[in-house]
Amino acid sequence: MNKSRQDNGFPDDPAENMRKISSGVSHLGLALLSSAVLDDTDDLDLHESVREEIDTLKYAVVAGIRLSGPVLRTVKTAPTLTYYYHYKTVNFALDQAALHIAGICQQMGGRVFPVPASQILDWDRFKAHLSHREIACRAGIGWKGRNNLIVNPEYGSQVRYVTVLTDLPLPDGREGVESMDCGSCMRCISVCPVGAIHEDPDDFELDKCAAQLRRFADIEQLNTLICGLCVKVCEGRVGVLQSRETKGEQSA
User: Fold this and answer.
1) Integer distance in angstroms from the first to the last C-alpha of the chain?
2) How far is the C-alpha of 90 from the C-alpha of 165, rounded, in Å?
3) Where are the domains of the chain?
4) Quick one: 178 exposed, middle or buried, by C-beta within 10 A (0-12, 13-18, 19+)?
5) Which residue of 98, 101, 181, 231 shows the fewest CB atoms closer than 10 Å?
């Protein structure tokens, strides 16, 4: 007869499990941390190579690191080498955070699948293991923006994410932003160099975006597909306030 985690001495309280995870990664400088219950994975955009294993892990921890505003401001008309290095460094830090989270979950008896922060498995369809954006939406971190990225009310799209899937019971964090959206903000539409972004988020043209990323990679001699233009202008409440303070200092 199989014993439950509680019978084996492992905590079976979702809120307590998340509290331990949060405490264990408090030193990592994460801007955002939440969890999601994946009741139905059928509508998740999962890569077929991992779907069978992921289907058994019904909980997710989502961690986010905020990008540097000053670094993003170096992106004027194209991604810069400064932004490229920052992007790489943040992805590495996220993968390390995922390992920390996975280790904590394992210590509590959970099975884990740390999903890489940025790894494309199918370049033709531009598809990774899963969409961190989709999981972040389910975790209540934000909503799908017009720029096809997760938009958090505090930090906009200026956060990168990583996901750890597990069978350790965790809280459902989706309440709070389900009814929120980009409202009247259209800043990302005006900065997109190929017109891939439209008023309806579902009209986002991934093919146009991907083609421009490849052009940037060639022209700017970057070793990855990045842009940063729509990320820079999607600041959230915190970014807007800091931008105003910076402008005030410059004009003083």
Assistant:
1) 72
2) 20
3) 14-251
4) exposed
5) 181
**Confidence label for 132 from pLDDT (cuts 50, 70 and 90):** confident
Q: CA-to-CA distance for 156 and 16, rounded, in angstroms?
A: 29
Instruction: Output the DSSP codes for 46-92.
Output: --TTTHHHHTT--EEEEEEEEPPHHHHTT-SSS--HHHHHHHHHHHH
Which amino acid, 135?
I
* Residue-wise pLDDT tens digits, 196-250: 999 999 999 999 999 999 999 999 888 889 999 999 999 988 655 555 555 555 5
pLDDT tens profile 169-203: 999 988 656 678 899 999 999 999 999 999 999 99
Cα 85 to Cα 75, 138, 160, 233, 237: the distances in Å are 13, 30, 14, 20, 26
What phi and psi values does residue 249 have, to the nearest 5 degrees? -65, -40
pLDDT band at 7 (very low <50, low <70, confident <90, very high): very low
CA dihedral over 102, 103, 106, 107, signed as positive or negative: negative
CB atoms within 10 A of CB 83: 24
**How far apart are the C-alpha atoms of 234 and 149, rounded to whole Å?**
10
What is the average pLDDT across 114-136? Answer: 78
Residue 184 contacts by C-beta under 8 Å, 6 or more apart in sequence? none
Cα 32 to chain centroid, rounded: 9
